[in-house]
Write a structure and sequence with these properties.
single chain; about 230 residues; alpha/beta; Spore Coat Polysaccharide Biosynthesis Protein SpsA, Chain A; nine-stranded mixed sheet; 8 helices; globular; disordered N terminus
């Protein structure tokens, strides 16, 4: 008599992707902010871009079965690490989180609510953010409200910003491709521009991201930003 086939595990609604490199001291904070989400139907893919500081041990300290750890065999940058995560993503939606940032607990839930309440042409959403300096002092709060077809507005000003603010429909992400790994900076802007050509965007008018600024972030390097803009244009 044939054994009944075991049912495949249900796919998570949201795939969260964290690229990381030598962030053993802070990556746990990002992971804990995912674990604390009010929306719990997620999978978390952490892509280690060949760390040498014990980042892998820090990640393996979390035993949740929804967490998947991928270690690359050579360093290729955050864009390539995010692309590795996208290739493994099973969720209907993909949300990105930088390893030195953290989400507020309702981040995923509020973004999914915006998708639910928007028309089918909305392909990605973005939340507001709170910026902190190295000492934990609040530098700024940023909440944008631009919506709809925003390609020209993005060419005028990069108002969406960091990947940690964004959730994208996986089918739309597959349509435009992932991050351009050749760009020295502004890989996020390049992807948002390509997405904005094929779908609408909707904002979540709440600060749901705590962004921690530091001197080692590529976004703080003016030359890289200028080179990235030049290549995109």
């Amino acid at each position: 008599m044939n054994e009944p086939l075991a049912a495949e595990p249900a796919k998570a609604t949201v795939t969260v992707i964290i690229p990381t490199f030598n962030r053993a001291a802070v990556v746990g904070r990002a992971i804990r902010s995912v674990l604390a989400q009010t929306w719990q139907d997620w999978e978390l893919i952490i892509v280690d871009d060949c760390s040498t500081d014990g980042t892998g041990r820090a990640v393996r300290g979390f035993s949740d079965a929804r967490i998947k750890y991928i270690r690359r065999d050579r360093r290729r940058g955050a864009g390539a690490a995010r692309n590795t995560g996208i290739c493994s993503a099973q969720g209907e939606y993909v949300a990105f989180l930088d390893d030195d940032d953290e989400w507020l607990p309702e981040k995923l839930q509020k973004e999914l609510e915006v998708f639910r309440d928007s028309d089918a042409e909305v392909g990605f959403v973005y939340s507001g953010k709170i910026l902190f300096d190295e000492r934990g002092k609040v530098l700024d709060l940023r909440v944008e409200t631009k919506s709809g077809w925003v390609h020209e507005a993005l060419l005028d000003r990069h108002f969406i910003g960091t990947c940690s603010r964004v959730m994208v429909k996986k089918q739309v992400l597959d349509r435009v491709g992932g991050f351009d790994e050749t760009l020295p900076s502004c890989q996020d802007l390049d992807l948002w521009l390509r997405l904005a050509k094929v779908c609408k965007v909707a904002p979540v008018p709440l600060c749901l991201l705590r962004r921690h600024m530091g001197p080692d972030q590529i976004s703080a390097r003016l030359r890289n930003i200028c080179e990235g803009w030049e290549q995109i244009l």
